[in-house]
Specification:
Low-confidence stretches: 1-14
Strand order of the largest sheet: 2-3-4-5-6
Mean pLDDT: 88
Radius of gyration: 23 Å
Number of strands: 7
Oligomer: single chain
Structural class: alpha+beta
Number of helices: 4
Largest sheet: 5 strands, antiparallel
Shape: globular
Strand content: 15-25%
Length: 199
Amino acid sequence: MADTKEPDNTTNPEESVEISNKFDGTQVKNAVDDQVRKYFGSEKSDYVEGHVHTDIKLLLGYSSCLLAGGAFLFEYYTSFQEAKPILLCSVIIFWLLQGVLWSYSAFVEQNEIFVGYKNDPKTRERQGILTISSEMKRYSPTYIIQMKYQDQKLHKTTQTKLEKNVASWFTEDGVLATEIVDKDIQEQVASLLRQVHKD
C-alpha cells in the first residue's frame, strides 16, 4: 500500500537543519545565518556572493601559519640559540597579524553575513550591491536582520530591518523551517527594492 502521508510544507527533509539546543542563542543565530547565505546562493536569488571578507581573513590566517612554519623550519635547521631573534620577531608579528584579523572582524566586517552583487543578465554590468547584517542579543529570542541596497545606476541607498521571533522559524524539535525563512527573506528583499524606485 502506498504511503499517503502528506509532505511537510515548512521543511525540506533533504536539507533539514536541526540544532541540538533551541535555547542556545549562538546555535540558533548560526543556523539562521547559514540559511540566509544558502538562500542567496541558490537559484532563488539574483545575487552573486562577494568573498572579500573571507579572502582577507584567509590571507591573514595563512600568513600567520606560514610565518610560524617558517620560524619552525629555521629553528629546525639551525639551533634554538641562533634562531632566538627570528622566533621572537615571528611571535610578535604573528600576534600583530592576529590583532589585525580580530580588528578587521570586529570593526570592518562587523555583523555582515552576506555581500552580494546584482548584475545585468545580458551586459553583466553591475546594478547594485546588497549587504546583509544580522544580530541576536544575548537572552533575546529576536533575530534582527538588516539589509542595505546600493543601486549603482540610480545612485541611491536604501535600508530595511526585519525583527523576528526565532520561535516562528523553528519546530518544537529544533528543526529550522527553511521555507518560512526563505519566504520572509524574499519578502524583505522585495520591499527593499521597492523603496529604491520610490520618488
